[in-house]
Every structure is written in structure tokens, then in C-alpha cells.
Amino acid sequence: MLKITTTSVTAPPPHISPSPSTTTTQKNLLNYINRRHLLTALSISFTASPLSIPVADARGLFQMPPPRLTNQYYLVRAGESEFESLGIINTNPVAKTSVDSGLSEKGKKQIVKAALQLKEMGACDTGCWIWPSITQRAYQTAEIIAAVNKISRSYIVPEYSFLDARGLGAYEGKNLEAVSEVYASDTISPRNKPPPIDDGTPNESVADVFVRVTQLMSILETQYSEETIIIVSPDSDNLTILQAGLVGLDLRRHRDLSFAPGEVRFVDISSIPTYKQPASAIYKCRNPPICT
């Protein structure tokens, strides 16, 4: 029987990088600096006017949806957390490395299954990089995936902000069922935000998350070439918004691509996932987050 052990993770100060090589360390350090300032600036640009980026072949000028991807990607939602097992919404980044943000016993079983699924899919047959959020349950998920697939821990690269769970503002601490109100608002506009709260929990719109995951993909597509990368998110929204952007689907419908805890998907930008709604209800979006 496979014995799974997980460790607690404490985010290091900004000057410490978790990357496995000197080159990667330098890049991660530069990526870390002023990320929140960058996200704020990009969010403002989306609000003020549509962002127009000329088509270019140069790597680093990442667009959604991309004409092609340099690497192959697998998307994994972390297993159930202790908070989720209690039916409580927890998205405050202050608590992301706490024990309560870690995997529940059910969550650990979900990720063993996910890790075995990745093994069956041959995801790491020729090696892979695992990029988890530093959030406790996501990092523990990465550890289990690495153990099952016999991948060195040096190939786990913690992500410190771009993969944070979507901040749900005033819904923090409420019952998980209340999140349906957020998704109802998402279907109206990708810029709608949950009500704010003063405890430090962000209140992020779909467009805000889209900025984060687009920046993450820009980093990955610039830093790696012809590699396999497993992205591990603590929540579903990061992944649904990312997948919608990659295949050119209306971000207002991202929830239709919902990830269950422990779910694994291979990214194929040439294949648009089937919505749960009838085909006539599908909206395509070629200039996200501006979808009309």
C-alpha cells in the first residue's frame, strides 16, 4: 500500500526562490517582484479599454486564445481541503499555508487517484514539471503526484500569487453553497466582483483571475520549451477561466467547465470542451475578457 505523507509549507520571503536551478531561480525572483502591482495595472487596463496586442511569433507575447502552445499541459484541481470538508468558503490568502487549508483525508485519497490517472496518461513518462499554488492543499497535491510518478521534489515549483484561489470577498467564511450567487453574477459580466470585505480577502472578478492565469501561461511558455507541465490549483475557478481562455470560450460561461476536487484534464487548445448546456447556448470569445 502506498503511504502518503505531506508536509506543511510556509511561504519564504520574496528574496528566496524555490526553483531547482540557478537560471530558474533568477527568473522566478524577477517574476515574484511587484506581481500584485502588475496585476493591478493590467486589471485597470481591462476596465478602461480592451487590451489590444499585435499578433507576434515572439515567445513571451502570450495571447488568449493562443495559436499554439510550446509545452503540453495538464490541469489538476487540488483535493478537498479541511475547510471544504466543513462546507466553508476559505479564499483569504493569509490562511493559504495554514494546516486547515491542507488536504482532508478524503482529499488525500482523491489525489492518489489523480496521481495514478496522470501515470496512466503517461504525463511524466519523459519527465514533467509540477507547478502548484503555494496554498497548502495544492502543494500537498503536488507532493503526492510527484511521489506516485517518481518525480524528484526539485521539479516541484511553487507559485506564490498567480494561482491563489479566487478571492470571494464578503463570501469568506460562508457556506459553500453561497458561491452559486457569485457564479450567477459571473454569467452577466466577467468584470462583476463579489462584495468586498475588510479582512484582507480579495474580491476578484473573472477578469481579475483571467489576468493572473494569462500571466502564468506567459511565464511558462517563455521559461520552458517542449516540456510537460502540471498546473495544480487550489480551486476550480483558476482552471475553468484558464481553460476557457485557452480554447476561446466566453468567460461568462467558465463555470460550465467546473473541476471537481482531484480532477485531471489534459489541455488541448484545438478541442473545445462540451458545455453542459445545449450547443445553441455556447458563446465563443476571441478577445477575452471582452466577450460580446
UniProtKB/TrEMBL annotation:
Q: Which Pfam family is an annotated match for this chain, by its short name?
A: His_Phos_1
Query: According to the UniProt record, where is the region Disordered?
Result: 1-24
- InterPro entries, A to Z: His_Pase_superF_clade-1, His_PPase_superfam
- Name under which the protein is recorded: PHOSPHOGLYCERATE MUTASE FAMILY PROTEIN
Q: Which organism is it from?
A: Salix koriyanagi
